[in-house]
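Q: Here's a chain of 257 amino acids. Please give me its 3D structure as tokens.
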Amino acid sequence: MNTRQQQLDAFNRLLDIMDDLREKCPWDKKQTLQSLRHLTIEETYELGDAILDNDLQEIKKELGDILLHIVFYAKIGSETGDFDIADVANEICDKLIHRHPHIYGDVVVEDEEQVKQNWEKLKLKEGKKSVLEGVPKSLPALVKASRIQDKAKGVGFDWEEPEQVWEKVQEELQEFKDEVENGDAEKIESEFGDVLFSMINYARFLNINPEDALERTNKKFIKRFTYLESKAGEMGKSLADMTLAEMDVFWNEAKKL
């Protein structure tokens, strides 16, 4: 692996390249904080895909893309005189030191849960009005639900046993079923949301990341469905021409692969 000096040299090289691009490249010169935003989100999702696939070479590549974006934002900030990469680094360093008093102070903790609880308490002392302020509004709903529950847990608002959460899941399922039978579309949607929220809560108690679990299922479905499409193509058929029984044969084959 590279030495600390080699790591610093590599980062300094990236800063120099960013200076060149910002000065000389027509595309890079045009970019703003706002124009880069959607690209950064896209790069983050690509990193997430690589992590789920456990593709270490792809993870390295995507981390580089995200690092470029961080340097890019800092470069733009330096041009407006608001902040530069040193300010960005020092800001996070100061935050980490402040929020880890069990490392940089005299606070004693026994386990990970106490670390999380202290973290949320410190955030409130920093001026946050609610522990939920740290949950981005634009997060996808499933991820947001998971983060909301984590935040609430950090201040002790949580179930005590997994069995209690499972009972809540069953309760919400019954309420959902009742509303389906009643046929009120608005109430059906509301109860379905409650079911999802309770399932995400139960996943947390089982140490399952619901976003990762669902995405792995998505990937699994895509893989099996494309196998089904390829087999249909080999027979000279489209899926629309096949019966469910015919498709089921190839679906079961795909499950065995």
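Q: Can you summarize the key feature?
A: The two ends are 37 Å apart (CA to CA).
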